[in-house]
Amino acid sequence: MIICCGEALIDMARVTVRGLGDVFAPFLGGSPYNTAIAIGRLGVPVKFLGRLSTDFFGELLFKKLQKCHVGEELIHRSDQNSTLAFVEQDKIKGPQYIFYAEGTADCSLQPSDLPLKLPADTKCIVFGSISMTLEPISTAIESFILREGIRKSTDQFDGAPVISFDPNIRPFLIKDKNAYTGRLEKWVSASTIVKMSVEDFTFIYPKLDPEKALQKVIAMGPRLAICTLGSKGALALLRRNDGSVTKVNAPAVDLPVVDTIGAGDTFHGALLAWLEMKEKMSRSALVSLSESELYSAIYFANKAASIVCTRAGAEPPSRKEVEALKGPKEKEAAMAKPAAKKPAEAKAKSTETKPAAKAKAAAEKKPTAEAKPAAAKKPATKK
Fold first, then answer.
1. 122, 151 contact by CB (below 8 A)
2. What is the pTM of this model?
């Protein structure tokens, strides 16, 4: 079971309404919230840990979690307002945001809201995004992650749950870049998996290309570091017990893009869902992934992210939808396979007898004038 902790908010996105022109319409969102929805829709056990308002936006957020099979046992309700995030699509820069989050329910998570003991089946904890730039939620989640990251373990092996971090950086929320970078590297060091976008790396390590940035991240302690590259797919580095590093590049699937809201969150959720579905959600199993398994995990996540980009807002796909989507190589492989013979045709072919053989068989059965004793009769030969 996976726990996603952090913000749950309302994305106010610009849409065109006939007769009104461009207006802002509400979409349910928040990075950890979207990730939980993505995992739930893929059929993997997941719970959301956070605070939700009792206002009508909070009710909508809560009901969607229920509809998508996300556990609600770790949710606290509050009469504070829901957070609003206005989203403007920029063809060059991607989605741009303005947040109204001061004193809101989700961003007011307190250490007292955190469970003293996690459910026994907890295998992974997800954190990150704007939750880690606002108080008091940032300090609360940091203490929670540091506590759980060393539970029954002081290394990157079994005992503690897998900790998966996606900073999902919003630069305009960061007042002191140096201070934030110091805290981010602390969170990276406490994590087992780190997923960052190329935009995240451009902000944090502007002088490093994606692979060099991943190498820097993985040297801090994580076992798996991933950089999502938009339409170019994703690059992943996996550090094994012997210190060797496996590198994998996996492509995205070229589909029509409506918007990219929730793409990174869906990628993150699908990656973790794949690990859980394949029984690889532990620290020891993670470092033992083969190169082909790592590729399959990243490609599965890319397909899920490609699908969500065909929809308005963050609406992650189901497992059936992801598995049904075939990229160019998968289509080529399917076409290269010989067509399977139909059962009826195969049976007819196996029982078909040549005319000459039929005549010979009939001649052997025809009685003769001077029949030989039965004991002298030769056994029939199989054709």
1. no
2. 0.83
